Automatic annotation (TrEMBL):
GO cellular component: plasma membrane
Protein family membership: Belongs to the DcuC/DcuD transporter (TC 2.A.61) family.
Gene: dcuD_5
Name under which the protein is recorded: Cryptic C4-dicarboxylate transporter DcuD
Main location per the UniProt record: membrane
Transmembrane segments: 6-23, 30-50, 70-90, 120-139, 145-164, 190-217, 223-241, 279-298, 310-328
InterPro entries cross-referenced by the UniProt entry: C4_dicarb_anaerob_car, C4_dicarb_anaerob_car-like
Compartments where found: Cell membrane
First and last residue of the signal peptide: none
Length: 330
């Protein structure tokens, strides 16, 4: 589902209402299920992710699908497998260690679902943007169409189908306002992040920080390795403190091309692990939205959820650096 819902907080809300009861019926402890759900939207290679769109643009890729398939997926998919394996052993260990404390009573009111469900084919609508962006990116590259146009087309199609099914234009116009309200809120957040990132870059440039870093790494052998560790480590630290992954990534991605050019290294070697790190460490921060949402449903402290997510995601963080090092240094 994270392929079509790249937002960690939004996906957590959906999965706590749908997947969580299934995991509990399967005899998984409450905290194990919470830990798994809190880490679902981390580094899945989706072309719908805002961070992937920004990275592809700044790093000079013609289409976001190129960046996702040729670089992101090469690293993220094996890391996801490793995280899954780490989850199995870590959750098993924590359940044994915590015993009955790993099973909590869930507030069922937060898991209520609407009994008036739409037809089953409505499940196809969320897949339309992903399908279109992949098709245009692979087979119709001469047609320049972006994620905004694809999103609006998908919305219009869903609106028309819903209007035909219910036949109430006034109700549909009222319901559609939720789409534009959410889009406006998301847009305002992105604008704030981009403005903040641009301000940071301008400030660092003005004080000579970028030129200083560039001059230091210009003549250093294997400078890309050092830059990868520095930027990934800094991203991990800030994300852990702030709880926001995209804010950190948007702030630093603007710096990468110029510094990488001075160091004569592939900018993807620095930017990609930084991007993956921001998404991985987010679910380790007790102040991140996804951790708080999951913790509130299972009625535990965010720290308890972090205990379940920390080891698998730290393993994923280390694996990300190792795979990136192998992919771009040898």
């Amino acid at each position: 589902m994270s392929l079509i819902i790249p937002s960690a907080a939004s996906l957590a809300v959906i999965l706590m209402a749908t997947l969580y009861p299934i995991l509990r019926v399967a005899k998984m402890s409450s905290l194990s299920a919470a830990g798994v759900i809190a880490t679902t939207a981390t580094i899945v290679p989706t072309p719908l992710g805002g961070d992937n769109v920004v990275a592809a643009k700044i790093l000079g890729f013609e289409h976001v699908v190129d960046y996702v398939t040729m670089h992101h997926a090469v690293i993220s998919l094996p890391v996801l497998v490793i995280i899954g394996i780490a989850h199995y052993f870590w959750q098993k260990y924590m359940d044994k260690r915590q015993g009955a404390a790993a099973f909590t009573d869930v507030d069922e009111s937060k898991l209520t679902t609407n009994s008036q469900l739409p037809p089953a084919y409505y499940a196809l609508f969320p897949l339309i943007p992903l399908f279109l962006i992949v098709v245009f990116g692979l087979f119709f590259r001469q047609i320049k169409i972006g994620l905004v146009e694809i999103t609006l087309f998908s919305f219009a199609l869903a609106f028309i189908v819903e209007l035909i099914r219910k036949g109430d234009l006034r109700e549909q116009m009222k319901n559609s306002s939720l789409f534009f309200t959410g889009m406006g809120q998301g847009f305002s957040q992105v604008v704030v992040l981009i403005v903040a990132a641009s301000t940071l870059v301008a400030g660092l440039t003005a004080i000579g920080a970028i030129s200083t870093v560039a001059s230091l790494v210009k003549e250093v052998n294997n400078a890309g390795i050092g830059l990868m560790f520095i930027f990934s480590g800094l991203t991990a630290l800030i994300t852990l403190i702030s709880g926001s992954g995209n804010a950190v990534f948007y702030s630093f991605i603007e710096l990468i091309p110029s510094i990488a050019n001075q160091a004569h290294v592939d900018p993807v070697m620095i930017a990609l692990p930084m991007q993956l790190t921001s998404n991985l460490i987010r679910a380790i921060s007790p102040v991140s939205a996804v951790v708080i949402i999951v913790a509130s449903v299972v009625k535990v402290s965010p720290i308890e959820v972090v205990k379940r997510t920390s080891v698998p995601l730290l393993v994923g963080f280390v694996a990300t650096l190792i795979f990136t090092l192998i992919r771009y240094s040898f």
